[in-house]
Design a protein that fits this description.
By secondary structure, the protein is an all-beta fold. The protein is 0% helix and 22% strand. It folds into 2 domains: 41 residues, no CATH class; 281 residues, no CATH class. β2 and β3 form a beta hairpin.
């Protein structure tokens, strides 16, 4: 059969035609027996376009290699519950998005991930606040949140005014002290310690992602340490991981501590219950009041896991996770608000 050589490139101009140019197609066994350099075909056995190289006497596949997939993250653990009357510590905060210099949380690197690979995501729950009449009346610590190798530690529960447990618990951020106790320690790179108390009838606030929990000043309980602004979801003013405010004695003119910016619950110095930490912000629960009928400590707010990645990719999440995805510029942002399961990128 005669071979026609087309030497004018314009002959291949298909104009506005939106159809496809079809290559010769066949199995590996059907390859030409005496191929020439540069011959190209679609191999139905391998599923790849291939070309022949006479130098190597080899058919080479033309394989698509996607750009490396890097993921920015914000991983926040559940906040600690308020004690009687120390405020709960905020859930630990770890992030690779934006600057966190000067805060308890340290700036970290984005993660490289591989498509079609399972990665674990866990959203930690908040710790329970103390319930009046149960001793020792310390708040419960929050649960950890996880993405891949990133684990954020649950916030420490607030300390008790009585019952032999005045110290706040250690956590991502530490719980505030009750009575003459010490604030719980924070975790390096995740949050600050809770406030301590030298005496008095109002108690300390829980630590936050960017500040130590406050101590009592006069008749005012310590405020929760402020959280950190991380705008991974877009916009501004997105604060997370604020500590719970301290509570105190309802019999006198004492003032409750305010929750820290970023979801911390307010404490109480009356017989009503303290404020819970805010859901999915990892805020610490406010400290309760310690005279019967008690004002309960607030529950810690649940954590959250937020991932930001190229919009060319899609996340598929296991059925035990609750999530939503939004597009922000050229990226997608997926927010996981509850559950634990695996995810894959495609």
């Amino acid at each position: 059969m005669a071979i026609t050589k087309i030497e004018v490139p314009e002959l291949f101009d298909f104009g506005s035609d939106n159809s496809a140019f079809k290559l010769p197609t066949g199995t590996t066994a059907e390859r030409p027996t005496s191929p020439s350099n540069g011959e190209m075909r679609f191999n139905t056995t391998t599923g790849y376009v291939e070309y022949y190289d006479t130098t190597d006497a080899q058919w080479w596949e033309i394989d698509y290699v996607p750009d490396p997939l890097t993921v920015d993250y914000l991983v926040i653990a559940g906040g600690g519950g308020g004690g009687i009357s120390g405020g709960g510590g905020a859930g630990g905060l770890r992030t690779s998005y934006g600057s966190t210099s000067g805060g308890g949380a340290s700036n970290e690197s984005s993660l490289s991930v591989t498509v079609a690979t399972n990665y674990t995501v866990t959203v930690g729950g908040g710790g329970n606040g103390f319930i009046g009449g149960s001793w020792p009346a310390i708040g419960g610590s929050g649960s950890n949140s996880i993405f891949l190798t990133i684990s954020s530690i649950g916030g420490g529960g607030g300390g008790s005014v009585d019952g032999g447990a005045p110290n706040g618990l250690t956590g991502g951020s530490g719980g505030g002290a009750g009575n003459t106790g010490s604030g719980g320690g924070g975790t390096t790179g995740q949050g600050f310690a809770g406030g301590s108390i030298s005496g008095g009838q109002v108690m300390a606030g829980g630590g936050g992602a960017s500040a130590v929990g406050g101590t009592a000043v006069g008749n005012t309980a310590g405020s929760g340490g402020n959280g950190l602004e991380v705008n991974i979801i877009g916009g501004t003013g997105n604060f997370y991981s604020g500590g719970g405010g301290g509570g105190g004695d309802p019999r006198s003119s004492y003032v409750a501590g305010s929750g820290g910016t970023g979801g911390g619950g307010n404490g109480t110095t009356n017989y009503s219950n303290a404020q819970n930490g805010v859901t999915n912000l990892g805020g610490g629960g406010g400290g309760g009041s310690f005279i019967s009928p008690y004002g309960d400590g607030g529950n810690g707010g649940s954590g959250v896991v937020i991932l930001r990645y190229s919009s060319a990719y899609t996340i598929t999440a296991g059925g035990s996770l609750t999530s939503s995805t939004a597009t922000v510029g050229t990226d997608k942002v997926t927010t996981f608000t509850a559950g634990s399961d695996t995810i894959t990128f495609s």
